[in-house]
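Predict structure. Chain length: 173.
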Amino acid sequence: GRLESLTDEQIKAKHHFYVFEFRTSICPDFRAFNCPHGKPYTCLRAHYDNHLRRRPTIISDPASPQHGQWQYSAATCSHASLLDCPRGKECPYSHRAQKENIYHPAVYKTQFCDASFDADGNCAKYGPHCSKAHSERELRTPVYSIDDLPPPQLTPPTLTTPPTTSFDPTLDS
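Prediction complete.
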């Protein structure tokens, strides 16, 4: 697989991208009917509103009882889709239709995948965006709250900071 060719810093950047950026915005190429990653759906951006994930952010308001926690947990909501949930974007739980649960900082790459790689170097079971680890190097420690983040490494966006990433998606193509 391609994993062997990545440095530890590239793996960290890839993890950061998938947790905080993957499908958190709409693909402008798809809206223009020009996305080359539509069939099969391997695009890094959302093609429809029902694919759009919320970006995990730490609640930074010191007055909030959830201060220092993610604005939604890895536990799944009884409503499969964010669009069907009566609480909408304010729901404190993940939604399976948007894959918020598997790309959550407490879950992404924290367990090993039982599948091997296909001829293209992708997970044979879940494809190029597999949320499970395929080696010790890829394995992450779950991040449940700000207390689980080792300073001064990658810091998640808060509700007051804009998203940034240094992951080059072409490394994963």
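Summary: Residues 8-20 form the longest helix (13 residues).
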